[in-house]
Structure formats: C-alpha cells, structure tokens
User: What shape does this take?
Amino acid sequence: MTFDALLFLSFGGPEGPEEVRPFLENVTRGRGVPPERLDEVAEHYHHFGGVSPINRLNRDIMVALRGELESAGRDLPVYFGNRNWHPMVEETVAQMAADGVGRALVFATSAWGGYSGCRQYHEDIARAREAVGPRAPELVKLRQFFDHPLFVEANADAVRAAFTELGAEPGQARLVFTAHSIPLRADEEIGPDGAPNWYSRQVAEAARLVAGQVGVDDYDVVWQSRSGPAHVPWLEPDIGDHLDELYAQGVPAVVVSPIGFVSDHLEVVWDLDNEAAELAEELGIRFRRAATAGTDPRFPQMIVDLVAEETSDAPVQKLSDMPTAGRGVNGEPCDDAGC
Ligand SMILES: CC1=C(CCC(=O)O)c2cc3nc(cc4[nH]c(cc5[nH]c(cc1n2)c(C)c5CCC(=O)O)c(CCC(=O)O)c4C)C(CCC(=O)O)=C3C
Ligand SMILES: [Fe+2]
Assistant: This one.
C-alpha cells in the first residue's frame, strides 16, 4: 500500500501555566478522577512552570524521524497531532486533508496495548476523521512496539549506562522496571490473544527482554502514578511502597528503568526523578533512573522499520512470542478484545 504522510499521534501536554487546568480537564473528561487528584497533578506541572516536557520531546523525535525517513529514501511528510492538547489531532487531520493527504500511517507514542496506550488512540483517530468529514484521509495505525528489538536494545543500553553511573555491576544494585499503573479492571478487560491482562503482561515481557540483554535475572516490575479513588484497585506494588520493601530487605542501591514511558514525561521527571529519588535518599538507597528510549537514535529507526512493515512487506521484527496487536484502520479497534 502507498501512503502520503505519517501522523505522529501523542498524548499532548500544557506549554504554560494557564494551559494546565484545561489540559487536565481534557485528559480526565468523564473518567471519574477526583478533583483533589487533579489539584495535586496540576501542582506537579506548576513545578515546571506549567510546561510539560512531552511536546518538546515529541518534536525532537520528529526531527530525528524526518532524518531517518530521508536516509531511508522515504518521502513521507510527518504531521503532529495530540489527544489532549494542541496541536489537537482534529486540527492536524483537517490540515492533512487540506494538503491533499489521501492515506496516512499513524504512529502512536505508546509501546503498549490496553485502553490508554492503544484503544484510546483508535478512538482519537475515529473522532478526528469524523470531525473532518468525507475528505478525511484513510488512517492506518501502526502496531504496538513493546517487543521491537530496537526498543528493547535502547532500553537495555540505558539500563547498562545507569549501572555504570552508579558504579555498580548488575547484581550489586537492584533492577526495578516501572510503568504507569492502571485499574485492575481495565487491565483485565483487554487481551487480544483471548487472555486478560494484555498491558501488564506486555510490560512484564518487555522487562524480561531488557533484563535478559543486560544479563540480570533477578529484577522487579512495579507501577507508578496511580490516580482514581483509593478504593479502586490498581496494578501494584507502587514504586514508593516497593522502595520501602527494598529498604527492609537491606538493598543498598537501585537502578530504575522507566520502561513504561517512551520519553521523559512528567511522570518520569516528577514521580521518579523527584518523588522516588527523594524517598530513596531518605532510605539511604542509592538511586539511578535509566534514560527513556525516545532520545536514542534507535527509536526513530524503529519507527522507520514499522513503516517498512506496512509499505514494503518488511518482516515483522519482534523479540517476544506474544502476538502482534494494535494495528487498525480508521480507528476500528484492531481486535474484538479491543487491543
Ligand atoms: C497506561 C498509561 C500511560 C502509558 C502509555 C502511554 O504513553 O500512552 C499513560 C501515559 C501518560 N499519561 C499522561 C498524563 C496523565 N495521565 C492521567 C491519567 C491516567 N493515565 C492512565 C494511564 C496511562 N497514562 C490512567 C489509567 C489514568 C487515569 C485516568 C484515565 O483513566 O484516563 C492524567 C490525569 C491526572 C492523573 O490522574 O494523574 C494525566 C495528566 C502523560 C503526559 C505526561 C506529560 O505531560 O508529560 C502520558 C504520556
Ligand atoms: Fe496517564
């Protein structure tokens, strides 16, 4: 199939203090997140002048991606659209239609399946096409990439670098992978292979692959940044509780790999670099947070590989035995189980 463009579809974030509240309203519309939680999260953004790093990081990735596409001889203009903040995906898809784009690939910036990481991006695609009407381009979303070799290698190198910075050999510091928590119910709902817990199983699998490349067989997978009412169960343990537990075990040092995030989002720079690092310091645990994969040149190279899977019948590159999922046309969910 031929494509006229690539839509880089992400979460979006505020770029000034007055944008924080309306952004948070967009994120949580109809989700039952308590207002106290919104106030707390707004504070996190205000620590950074009301600016989330996410848009700048995405623009950096797009610059690198344009370079990689050009080197690969692919003439594919890259457009930027977001779910929750400007440039909003509706505006971007309207612009694509105006530019005469008839069919485009969509790269969504989440490695994962599940509602927030995949299904909701299909919904964004469908909503944007509907807003634009009959002239809207056909939009083909690329698959989930949690087990792509370049994503795994970039994360593994970042973990190695963090061990080096700590001056520790793997084995002298505990390796802890962290990803965004989600409600247990949400995790159970989705599993395109007929089994539940697709998201948490993918996170576990990506952690296993990265740890394997680093040569560590003893590691933990934990969760962070939960929201929602306290009585609703989310994936656990939380990273903070886990650091307490490691302290109780007498663990002297940790390397934290934020495998769940493709770049240094607010959840990484606040919840890890600030809160978790501070707790570790209080506990006397030496702490290093590994880099995210987004700034590694292999990340845009991976996107070019994913494009090649669609356009050149290039082989699907993956390191796990879990089935590929997440591809979809015009926002139709990829699978009955909602991917
Ligand atoms: C699985 C997952 C990912 C990883 C996959 C992916 O990358 O997509 C992710 C990414 C992100 N989440 C982000 C921000 C927020 N997420 C929130 C709320 C929520 N996230 C959830 C899940 C996830 N979220 C869930 C189940 C909720 C509860 C409400 C709901 O059911 O929707 C809220 C509301 C306040 C709060 O409750 O914390 C905010 C502000 C940002 C941008 C950060 C920046 O600005 O740099 C990014 C990349
Ligand atoms: Fe989130």
Q: What stands out?
A: The longest strand covers residues 174-180. Residues 190 and 257 are 25 Å apart (CA to CA). Strands lie at 5-10, 78-82, 103-108, 138-141, 174-180, 219-224, 253-257, 286-289, 328-329. The two ends are 23 Å apart (CA to CA).
